[in-house]
Amino acid sequence: MEPTTALPAERASLNRLGIFSQDGSTLGYVLLPVPSDPARTQNTPDANARLEAAYSALTLSSILGPRAKAFVWATERMFTDPEIFTEVPNLAGLLLSPWLAQRPDASDQVMRMRELHLACILADFTGTPGQVALLPFVHYVTINFRRDDAEELAERATNANVAVIASQTYNRARLKEAWQSGAQFAIGTVYKASPNTTKPMTPGELQCLSAIRLLNEESPDLNQVADILSTDPEIMLRVLHLVNSASTGVSQRVDSIHRAAVLLGPARIGPLVMASLISARVHNMDALWFLLTRAAACRELSRDDAGYTTGLISALAYDSGIDAETLVSKTRVSPEVTAAVLHGEGRLGQALRAVVAHEIGNYDAIRETGYSIPEVAGAYLTALPWALNTLQDLYTN
After folding, report:
1. Where does a domain end: 137, 160, 187?
2. Which of 152, 141, 163 is nearest to 97 (CA)?
3. Which among 277, 147, 141, 257 has a CA at the least distance from the CA of 210?
4. Same domain for 289 and 216?
5. Residues 6+ apart with CB under 8 A from 208
6. Going by fewer Cβ within 10 Å, which terminus of the chain is more open, N or C?
7. Are strands 119-122 and 91-96 parallel, antiparallel or unpaired?
8. Does residue 135 sit in the same domain as residue 28?
9. What's the CATH number where 171 sits?
10. What is the distance between the alpha carbons of residues 31 and 73, in angstroms, rounded to a whole number?
11. Rounded to an integer, what distance in angstroms lies between the CA atom of residue 115 and that of residue 300?
12. Contact 94, 78 (CB under 8 A)
């Protein structure tokens, strides 16, 4: 995004949330200021400048992926002069705040957006006269399903042939209500039913867990780790690819898995082995990115490498169907990590609960952890590009 002419000292705190359909497919992502940030609650020159400063500091592809659609919270300048943003990669449309919907020229501006092939989302739809007047021209509305009149608002939008995106649906009961009320999409993490039985683990997955267990020891035997990894051709090739990549700075080609293990060390081999375990269960790059992002955000927030392991095991249990108790048992992680993953306890559990709450936009739950909403949002935005770069290092030639 282009910077403003005079940037304020502070930037707005942003959250990136997925927009998903009932079948779990992703429409795109919304990028918007968190509710406690002035850029979300005020229409002042300073608030708009802080929001544009936050956008200017981001590369959308690094937090959304190379192909994902982005719908961003519009500043006044973005709404009145949308042409300057049509060439921004990934930008699919704008979210219009309630005060932008009240502008006398709002319908004209929305029509300009349509001509520029920018989608328009009426944010926080409550049925105000200005919002209702825009219904014939917009593509989507977001509705807070904590509201008592959410079903009535959804019906009003649906009757106007506008797709409903449900927000604040961070428990299964409320999400079910939203689907039954006609919502086509929801904001947050896709909820999946817990499996009735734990999926059996393959020999290759057990090998990965054995390697992870060794890497979690105080003084891991890297030769023993290499012996285990050498029995899996795919992971052995990934280790050799990683050690010979430009990012490691190795001057001569390494052909031995044992030498590669020593050169990389536990800190670099651990994420690779865990990623291999994940990819054996999860065959979607977006899902892999989600898993590594949760892990990195927990590490960033807790300022502890054990936070990475905590987030990764938690995310793997969520996405793969492997029981969390099985994972912590097989990996023999510390009692602190075990308590964090299984019960959300301790310092690491506090960070994990805050990150999970951030992923679904449950800001009340973030406050309950003791972390500030901007602090958690910042950790997550830091984790996203790191996780993407890690995946690119692991899976590209």
Report:
1. 187
2. 141
3. 277
4. yes
5. 232, 235, 273, 274, 276, 277, 280
6. C
7. parallel
8. yes
9. 3.20.20.450
10. 6
11. 42
12. yes
By C-alpha distance, which of 54, 59, 49, 38 is closest to 7? 49
Q: Give residue 127's pLDDT.
A: 96
User: Which token pair is 327?
Assistant: 């994972």
For residue 108, what pLDDT is reported?
95
303: domain CATH number is 1.10.3210.10
Same domain, residue pair 223 and 100: no
pTM for the predicted model, two decimal places: 0.79
Q: How far apart are CA 360 and CA 340, in angstroms?
A: 19
Q: Work out the angle between the directed axes of helices 305-320 and 335-343 (0-180°, nearest 10).
A: 40
> What are the average pLDDT values for consecutive 10-residue runs of the chain, which has 397 residues?
40 88 85 88 88 85 77 91 76 92 94 92 96 96 96 96 94 90 86 48 74 78 86 77 67 81 82 69 67 91 89 83 81 88 96 94 93 94 87 62
Tokens for 317? 């249990």
Whether residue 215 sits in one domain with residue 147: no
- What pLDDT sits at residue 282? 56
Residue 198 resides in a domain: no
CB of 29 closer than 8 Å to CB of 71: yes
Q: Which of 144, 141, 142 is nearest to 162 (CA)?
A: 141
Q: How do the residues of the chain divide into helix, strand and coil, expressed in percent and rounded to 5?
A: 55, 10, 35
Distance CA 384, CA 343 (A): 25
